[in-house]
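Action item from last meeting closed. Structure (129 res):
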């Protein structure tokens, strides 16, 4: 893939640190440092970075849908970094709602995101289980 434009594309970082049910989902201590490091990395790689903190299940989907609509036609690549509690195939919103990874990636697939058709889409999930 040719990745030469500046900015390369958008890197969306979603970090859920605190949750409504603290007994079930303990606070993800120090995850803010991961966000700082990810932001520095992707800015150094010439990405426009969008950060979102403590989002419910529906808000996670809305953030990704919103960022999809803001993609410039000339984006070379898309990156999503999602840090939260999770299960085998899902991440949790701060409200305890599950968001299947397949639903997240489907937002940016060839049919749902024509701006990225034929271009790389990277999804990084760091999920405490």
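Sequence:
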């Amino acid at each position: 893939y040719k990745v030469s434009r500046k900015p390369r594309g958008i890197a969306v970082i979603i970090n859920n640190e605190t949750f409504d049910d603290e007994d079930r989902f303990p606070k993800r201590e120090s995850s803010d440092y991961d966000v700082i490091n990810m932001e520095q990395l992707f800015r150094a790689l010439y990405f426009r970075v969008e950060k979102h903190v403590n989002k419910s299940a529906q808000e996670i989907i809305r953030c990704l849908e919103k960022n999809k609509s803001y993609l410039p036609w000339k984006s070379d690549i898309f990156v999503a970094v999602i840090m939260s509690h999770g299960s085998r195939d899902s991440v949790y919103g701060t409200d305890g709602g599950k968001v299947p990874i397949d639903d997240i990636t489907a937002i940016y697939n060839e049919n749902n995101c024509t701006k990225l058709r034929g271009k790389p889409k990277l999804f990084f999930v760091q999920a405490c289980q």
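Note appended to the action item: Helices lie at 31-44, 57-70, 101-106.
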